[in-house]
Amino acid sequence: MAAWLQTPPGRFLLEWEQAQVDAAVADLFGFHALQLGMPELDGLRTNRMPHRWLAGRDLCCDFDALPFESASLDLVLLPHALELADDAHVLLREVERVLRPEGRLIVFGLNPASLWGLRQNLGRLRRRGEPYLPSEGDFIGYWRLRDWLKLLSFDVEAARFGVYRPPLRSDAWMQRWQWVDGVGSRWWPVLGAAYFIQAVKRVHGMRLIGLAKNARAAAKTAPAVALNNHQNKR
């Protein structure tokens, strides 16, 4: 996917996702945040949590066996990580394990029910030409992902679609169709090429006053994980 992000549609998608995540994480508070996948997206740059990790740069780990204690993270960001995972269900369950009650999860995905997804599927059926989107991975539908989150006791707090321009390859043509973004978000919002979901982990019956009581201890003790000091310099 890294090579595809250097193409005109890839750069446009990355720009849209960077804007969404910058706004979303700026006011999310806590102590420990983790991004899994897609280092081209600086997903935690506007976040102010004291401990922030990017898997693959700040620590090395298997995404389905994270080196964090259960209920130890306040924020996990998954930019297209579920699509590229060997088993998306296993990864999502592992993320649910390491998140604290009321912790936040942010997911970016490519929408198979979009013009970009349609072009990709037609190319696969015809078995000719270069795929428009990255060939690896399994794109997960928006409503399908919401069902998975609900089964794991996540509540979706915010969700939006974006990137309504046709599946074009050149910068010039992508710019010419810029006007479609405004029309698409108004008239066919769920057909954007990409989606953003922000969800919160709910633990029914747990009293938030108990979480607040342990906040000072959590601030002093980071999760047990091998890493460098990069996150404290950001």
Automatic annotation (TrEMBL):
Q: Does the keyword Flavoprotein apply?
A: no
**Any Gene Ontology biological process:** methylation
The UniProt entry's coiled-coil ranges are none
Q: Which residues form the Methyltransferase type domain?
A: 59-107
In Gene Ontology terms, what is one molecular function of this protein? Answer: methyltransferase activity
The keyword ATP-binding appears for this protein: no
Q: Which UniProt keywords apply?
A: Methyltransferase, Transferase
Task: Output this protein's name.
Answer: SAM-dependent methyltransferase
Specify the species: Pelomonas aquatica
| Lineage start | Bacteria, Pseudomonadati, Pseudomonadota, Betaproteobacteria, Burkholderiales
